[in-house]
Amino acid sequence: MRIISGVARGRKLKDVKINIRPTGDKVKESIFSIIQFDIEGRRVLDLFAGSGQLGIEALSRGASSVVFVDYDLKAVKLVKENLKLSGLFDFATVYQANAENFLSKNSAPDDTYDIIFFDPPYNSSLFNETLRTVFEFDKLNSNGIIICESEIDTPVPSINSPYVLSKGYRYGNTRILKIIKE
What we know:
This protein is α/β, with parallel strands linked by helices. It has helices at 25-34, 53-60, 73-86, 99-105, 126-136; strands at 43-47, 65-70, 92-96, 113-118, 140-151, 163-171, 174-181. Helix 4 runs parallel beside helix 5.
């Protein structure tokens, strides 16, 4: 794994063999192509952070800050190590927490984000549960973007105003959804 673009371009990230499924380079490049003009100066939340590569890529490309959340302690340690390797540690906060608990307990008005990445484990109910929790606790700022990664056949819960499914993309067995808040 490497950082594709920005101030930390080309730096390699660690991918310790823990129970995570990192986003492939092709999918990661596509994600950042989709949001390339929406990153600079934005506040980002990386749920199910794993190795932290999506949030770190966003920092490298100019995001003002990233909050990383993962339940697995090994993943949290890996994110911190990768932030140090990339030189971007000072712009990040890392939490060991269940995504839904994090979203529901951090409900202050300033705990909102411009971009939310989430890539829960495949073959789990976490995709729908977490997306509903993001909507319920209104964690996305107006004109914000949610980028969701899942298996192609994962059902998507209903998306109601002010949230709108902007576009869906398919890469093999992987689906990326871009959801915006109007």
